[in-house]
Design goal:
The chain has 338 residues and is of the alpha/beta class. The protein has a single domain, classed as TIM Barrel. Helix content is 49%, strand content 11%. The strands form two sheets. The protein has a seven-stranded parallel beta sheet with strand order 1-4-5-6-7-8-9, with helices on both faces. Helix 13 links the parallel strand 7 and strand 8. The mean pLDDT is 97.
């Protein structure tokens, strides 16, 4: 069984001989950059450097590969957001929100795939598919439609609108949803095997489950219904209260942090035919913990029923590579002992 066969069989509910291990958000770790010779900021814009760093999944002990760069701002950028410049240990980030005062001028960007980093992503996909063929799964990732909307307007302002300016909220997400559907389908046309929509701005730390059900669930359900391949939905923080709704959108998988209860999430997801990615802590364990801490937490995720053993979120750039490698070690040891 190839790594891709194992991954896709697991995602499609056909089962796998062992739990796949990898990262389904971002793994732009400084130690990996230096080891493979592809460092940010070049690795944020140059397709060859992007591909070289993506192929660093092997150094991490992972079993699938990421395309489309190392942050979740690409859609927001082509829709008008100004980005801050990255450093080796700092991703690109949204610096200015162009529609915080007015929605005048908010429209679908012309020639979207000729703008921003999409030409570089296209070439990165080509390089990765040429090198990996059908042996290894490759995924694309951007911010989701809700997070893109928050980036365009400003998160605080957009959350206020969910109470007082519902029509404006719907106007923005109807547009970002249209863009996201096209971006996801474009990625499948480039050879992506699945796609991650990262929605950190839709987490329970920022909105109630009731608001999530009103706005995000129908938006996500519509996106999933109109794309060409499997979607994995990543949401940060404690998602316990919205995990059933996340699973009801039609996604193939959900990606959760350590603050969420993996055991309960896996139970809910199993009932709904959805797979769970997670959930070794990134900001604490992988970044600041010992190798032993990382190993133990990875074993706990496996024991609690994760379908894919991954970090709970994007790996902090300064995380020691030895810590990251404990996920693979823990998985291998877990199945040897089984």
């Amino acid at each position: 069984m190839t790594p891709k066969e194992r991954f896709m069989n697991q995602l499609e509910g056909k089962g796998a001989d062992i739990t796949p291990v990898g990262c389904t958000t971002t793994y732009g770790v400084v130690d990996i950059m230096k080891k493979v010779g592809a460092e940010r900021p070049l690795a944020d814009t140059d397709p060859q450097a992007m591909a070289t760093l993506a192929l660093g999944y092997v150094e991490a002990g992972f079993e699938w590969c990421k395309a489309m760069g190392w942050d979740i701002t690409a859609v927001s950028e082509v829709m008008g957001c100004t980005l801050g410049e990255p450093k080796i240990d700092l991703q690109k980030f949204v610096k200015e929100h162009p529609f915080s005062e007015s929605l005048d001028g908010l429209e679908y960007p012309e020639n979207i795939f000729e703008k921003g980093r999409f030409p570089a992503y296209k070439e990165q996909f080509r390089i990765l598919k040429e090198k990996l063929g059908d042996e290894v799964a490759v995924f694309g990732e951007t911010e989701g439609a809700w997070t893109a909307a928050c980036n365009l307007v400003g998160t605080e302002q957009f959350m206020k609108w969910t109470f007082k300016e519902v029509d404006k909220v719907q106007q923005v997400i109807d547009l970002t949803k249209e863009v996201i559907i096209d971006v996801v389908n474009w990625s499948f046309d480039q050879g992506a095997d699945y796609y991650v929509l990262a929605e950190p701005s839709s987490g329970p730390a920022l909105m109630s489950p009731r608001t999530w059900k009103k706005f995000v669930q129908p938006m996500m359900t519509d996106i999933v219904a109109k794309v060409k391949g499997p979607i994995v939905l990543h949401i940060c923080a404690n998602t316990d209260l919205i995990i059933p709704m996340m699973c009801e959108t039609g996604v193939a998988g959900i990606s959760i942090e350590e603050k969420a209860d993996m055991k309960k999430a896996a139970e809910v997801a199993n009932d709904k035919g959805v797979k769970v990615f997670g959930n070794v802590a990134t900001a604490t364990t992988l970044f600041m913990g010992t190798a032993e801490d990382c190993y133990k937490e990875a074993i706990a995720s496996l024991e609690n029923g994760c379908h894919f053993l991954t970090p709970g979120c994007g790996i902090a750039p300064g995380s020691p590579l030895e810590n990251v490698q404990q996920l693979r070690k823990a998985r291998d040891d877990y199945f040897k002992a089984a």
